[in-house]
Amino acid sequence: MAENNVILSVQDLHTSFTTDHGEVMAVNGVTFNLNEGMTLGIVGESGSGKSVTAYSIMQILEKNGSIKSGKILFKGEDITRWPEAKMRDFRGKKCSIIFQDPMTSLNPVFTIGWQLKEAIELHTDRKGKAAEDRAIEMLKLVGVNEPEKRIHQYPFEFSGGMRQRVMIAMALACEPDILIADEPTTALDVTIQAQILELMQDLQKKMKMAIIIVTHDLGVIAQMADEIIVMYGGRVCERGTAEDIFYRPAHEYTKGLLRSIPSVDKIGQRLVPISGTPINLLNLPKGCAFCPRCDQAMKICLEQQPPETRTIDGHLSSCWKAIEEEAAAGLIDLTGPDGKPEDTSKLAEVSEKD
Amino acid sequence: MADKFTPDSQYLVQAHDMKMYFPVKTGWFHTTPLKAVDGVSFDIKPGETLGLVGESGCGKTTVGRTLLRLYKPTGGDMYFGGKRIDEKSIGGLRKDMQMVFQDPYSSLNPRMTVEDIIGEPLDVHKLYSGKKERREKILYLMELVGLNAEHATRYAHEFSGGQRQRIGIARALATNPSFIVCDEAVSALDVSIQAQVINMFEDLQKKLGVAYLFIAHDLLVVHHISNRIAVMYLGRMVETAESNELNNNPIHPYTQSLLSAVPYPDPKEAKARKRIILEGDVPSPLHMPSGCPFRTRCRYATDQCKAEMPPLTDKGGGHKVACWNR
Ligand SMILES: Nc1ncnc2c1ncn2[C@@H]1O[C@H](COP(=O)(O)OP(=O)(O)OP(=O)(O)O)[C@@H](O)[C@H]1O
Ligand SMILES: Nc1ncnc2c1ncn2[C@@H]1O[C@H](COP(=O)(O)OP(=O)(O)OP(=O)(O)O)[C@@H](O)[C@H]1O
Ligand code: SF4
Ligand SMILES: [Mg+2]
Ligand SMILES: [Mg+2]
To answer: CA–CA separation, A245 vs A312, rounded Å?
Structure first.
């Protein structure tokens, strides 16, 4: 991973929401890099803070939410310090988002065409007829038939998948540097999904666009992602190349996730979910967030948050069990970011099992 | 029409020649019927799961909604437990026929607490004797779908996509229905919770004999949960078979391309995989092609396909296909 082509760097991001019941700690120290022209996949439990991470980058959190600490560097500049006017320029022109819920992001009282045209006029130099032509062209590109007619229709007249394609058209029309796609194809059938994913990959090559794709569909992640981060309880529990995550999962949560996938050889068998209930973000555990549900949990897991360790192959994870195994196999890279050896005293504690 | 449809008592749900056309404004003075569902027939036995798959916009949701009479059908005969589903009967059938909606955002009132969302059907159908029982039932349902009890007093808008979907499932289960239309019910869930919810659907089926119409895009999931699968294309059913048979031996060219496009959860395989890419545009349901609806994108299409609509015919063992050339 060459450092110089990092386009977006999220560093120790904390985002929370104030509610009547207390502070919901949705994102608790998320760190990752996105390289120019590459695709980063984010997977993780429902409610683990994937969307909130995306909204934090765009600074479009709901009113009760805010970034508490951390940096978000876009081409080296910390955008959390940017004034709103500059952020408005960032959204759309530099970075577009495809939302998980197309219905709430399309305005029900305006036609599809009007909304697309407005977005294009706002974020590009195309105005009037040129914007409308672009809208039609984009709709065609995402597989909406007879776009000349369809632009006069309202969102409710479109199927779930068609609305999603409108959103995708809207995001891509502005040719952003970064595309954040939050479950972009969940509402689509697999043939259209394949088409849209290919379209995203094509545009990525042409425009050197970087993509962050958030999805539960591990098939989509496998196809798209160069690198993957796995989230649990508002934290990144593991990050690495797609091959690292699928073939050499390190964190117990990732292993559980991969075990839950239905497959043709498992027809007729019961699926194997991860047991237990999701964590309560109002009251985060002291140790590893996944500990209460982990079969491999040790005493230390309950007491101390596992640090992120890197193997010599650059595969990062935050799991005491993985640390133990990797340390035993001599795989942990002990050089810190500054080139000096890291504090290894923690590693010794791991062996005190319960 | 001359021949009247007679329901068969072995089935819980039957749809015969279901049609649902929407009027769409195509100009200042013009409306054109959009044939979202155009003559679809299927039946589901008690305790059985019929999977429904097909291209986005092909009419799957409309089939579910029309069956539950959330739309007034343009045509067709629909039966539930031997009773004809119509304006009059539907009120009495609602409790037994539920739906989990595709879009958890717009189907839940964001200003209601989780407790009230799940409690509403209990209130409507008066399914408890006191406050305490109501609360117990709600907490039981929440636990069933993997929601924390502490979530009960929070509002729908405070939840993530997958959490909202589970609220919708708990709500659908509240009345102990014998039939549930699951419209993309697990699509928004991560695979672990998805596995949990699918196991839960299967347990309910084993214990209580619940039947499902299971609409989903994830063919691995549909294959896992369904006894039979029906494939739709542009408002029509193009293939239906027992689920292993359909997966091992897809006959319709559309089904073949659909199966080839399934993203495989393995990076090397997913990146190397050969897909049958469909050529040509997706036709508009406003301007249906003549003959076979798939012919504009089909690599086997002949003149006959252009002239005549292929009927759904049995190729043996209940494997039915609507195609002239396969
Ligand atoms: N406006 C809000 N007020 C209070 N809590 C919120 C708010 N928005 C999100 N949350 C909480 O923050 C947590 C993270 O939510 P987020 O939407 O990021 O999850 P996610 O990982 O995207 O999940 P999914 O896969 O289900 O979409 C959730 O527990 C959610 O309940
Ligand atoms: N209320 C409505 N008014 C007009 N047209 C509609 C309406 N509801 C659906 N349609 C149209 O009917 C067709 C079928 O829509 P439907 O929502 O049933 O598709 P679907 O198979 O569920 O698709 P998806 O997989 O994208 O959810 C689409 O062309 C859609 O635009
Ligand atoms: S009937 Fe003809 S056009 Fe339709 S699927 Fe079969 S071969 Fe293709
Ligand atoms: Mg989300
Ligand atoms: Mg639908």
So the answer is: 15
- Give the predicted TM-score (pTM) of the model: 0.83
Cβ proximity of A234 and A48 under 8 Å = yes
**A residues 260..279 contacting B (CB < 8 A):** 260-264, 266-267, 270-274, 277-278
Residues on chain A touching B160 (C-beta within 8 angstroms): 46-47, 51
pLDDT band at A350 (very low <50, low <70, confident <90, very high): low
Secondary structure (DSSP) of A168-217: HHHHHHT--SEEEEESTTTTS-HHHHHHHHHHHHHHHHHHT-EEEEE-S-
- The pLDDT tens digits of the residues spanning B86-106 come to 999 999 999 999 999 877 667
Contact yes or no for B154 and A19 at CB 8 A: yes
Q: From CA B147, how far away is CA A163, in angstroms rounded?
A: 29
| A227-232 vs A77-78, strand pairing mode | unpaired
Q: State the closest ligand 1 atom to the C-alpha of B165, by its place in the atom list counted from 1.
A: 26
CA distances from A238 to A65, A141, A332, B67 (A): 25, 35, 14, 45
In 3D space, the residue among B316, B325, B326, B324 whose CA is nearest the CA of residue B245 turns out to be B316
CB neighbour list of residue A339: distance below 8 Å, 6 or more residues apart: none
In 3D, which of B55, B26, B27, B35 has the Cα closest to residue B285?
B35
Q: What is the pLDDT of residues B282-308, one digit of tens each?
A: 677 888 889 999 998 899 999 999 999
Q: What is the pLDDT of residues B8-48, one digit of tens each?
A: 889 999 999 999 999 988 777 788 889 999 999 999 999 99
- Residue written as token pair 């549909």: B222
Q: Give me the residue label for tokens 């994937």.
A: A50
